[in-house]
Every structure is written in C-alpha cells, then in structure tokens.
Input
Amino acid sequence: MTGVERERAIIDLIRSVPEGFVTTYGDLCPEAPRLPGRILATTSEKVPWHRIVRADGTFAQGERQRRLLRKEGIPFKGRRVDLDAAHIPREALLANR
DNA sequence: GTGATGACGGAAA
DNA sequence: CTTTCCGCCATCA
Output
C-alpha cells in the first residue's frame, strides 16, 4: 500500500460519511490515526471534514466545527458528540460502498 | 540518514 | 478529570 493509495482510500471513506453522522480518525485509518488528521489539515479536496471527530467524541476545529455538526442535527452529550447515537463505524462505511 | 511534528488512540499514572 | 508516553505513517528541516 503506497502513500497516495492510502490517501485516496481515506479521502473516499470521508466522502462516504452521510450527513447527520460522524466517524473517527481511527476508523478512517486504524494503523495510523494521525494520517487522516494530516490529510485533512493539508488537502484541498472538498470533503465533509466536520464529520470526522476523535474517538471520544471531542473534535479538533472548535466552534467552527461544532456549528456545522449541530446544523446537521448531530446529537451531543455535553461538549462532545454523542457517538452512541451518531457514530458510523469503519465496517459500516466499507460495506456501504 | 536522523529527528521532530501532527485535525490521533489507548494505556498508565 | 489531567498529564505522560509510546506507537503509527507521511512530511519536512
């Protein structure tokens, strides 16, 4: 698996996350959760970046991200996304292709 | 080549 | 709850 292939696979997975749901960096790339983060931070591709949150429901882009998530009706549990209700695991994303 | 870094994760303290 | 530490991969100095 080369770098670009891996990156493309991750971009595709991000695009497959439906509105109103979220997935985690770890789901996007179990072997290296930091990779999706690096890609989102540097890519110019159009992707629903706000639907990617950390494994504990917290997220990296503060208010900006919070706004977009709420706009889609994603449920919260205090300051974190309620993963029990809105999380789509990796297997589901892969199956849904 | 070596070392540091990052939109991370999980375990340990 | 918080802070460390280490592993992961690609990139950059």
